[in-house]
Structures are given as C-alpha cells and as structure tokens.
User: What shape does this take?
Amino acid sequence: MEFPKDLKYTKDHEWTKVQGTIATVGITAHAQSSLGDVVHVELPAIGKTLKTGDSFGVVESVKAVSDLYAPLSGKVVEVNKNLLADPTAVNQSPYDSGWMIKIELQNPSETKTLLEPAAYETLVKSLS
Assistant: This one.
C-alpha cells in the first residue's frame, strides 16, 4: 500500500497535496482498494464553496456508494473531468490521474489538522 510522503491525509481516507494556496484532493489507495472497481464519480461544480467536512461528491463502485468529504475549506477551482468519462483512473492511479478536485484554500492553516503520512499509515494498519 502506498503512502506518498508529499501528501497529507484525513481519517475519511482522502489525500491532499497543497501547493501554495491550491489543494489537490483525491481518495487514498486504501479507500479505492476497499471500494473495489470504481464505476461512477460525481464531482461538484467549479466555484462551489466547501467547508471542512462537507460532502463534495460521490464515488460509486461495484461494492458501495461512498460520499467524498472536503479535507479543507475553500472554493472548487478545478475538477478532474477525465474521471467523469473514465472513473477507473481512481483505481489505476489514485494519487496521480485519479485526483478529484482542486480547492483554493480559504484558511491554509487548516492543513495542520491533517494527518502526516506516518500517522495515516498507522491508522490504515489499525483497520486490518
């Protein structure tokens, strides 16, 4: 299982990569593995404002339908339109081509509430 060191994580199994005031968000390898084959993704409209913990979309797999939760507050500035046509990218490359949204951060200090890679890895191992 991958735990890229340049990312931060949530207990809901989303990852975040912050570059300046923009955070790229997706689901972790653990989440996509638990879901199984992803068959559909719903993402928010560009311009939508999110608060930490808000549901911003849905991932549907052969096993389940799961809500996606915003790890940070801000405005959606980009969505991965490729996932709408080919949601399998979430399974094939959750940390690269499987990213979901980009958020312009409202309060960059919120990143301090996210889990570091080692803490997230410990969380995932505790679930097995």
User: Anything to note?
Assistant: The chain has a mean pLDDT of 95. The helical segments are 29-35, 81-85, 89-92, 117-127. The first helix runs from residue 29 to 35.
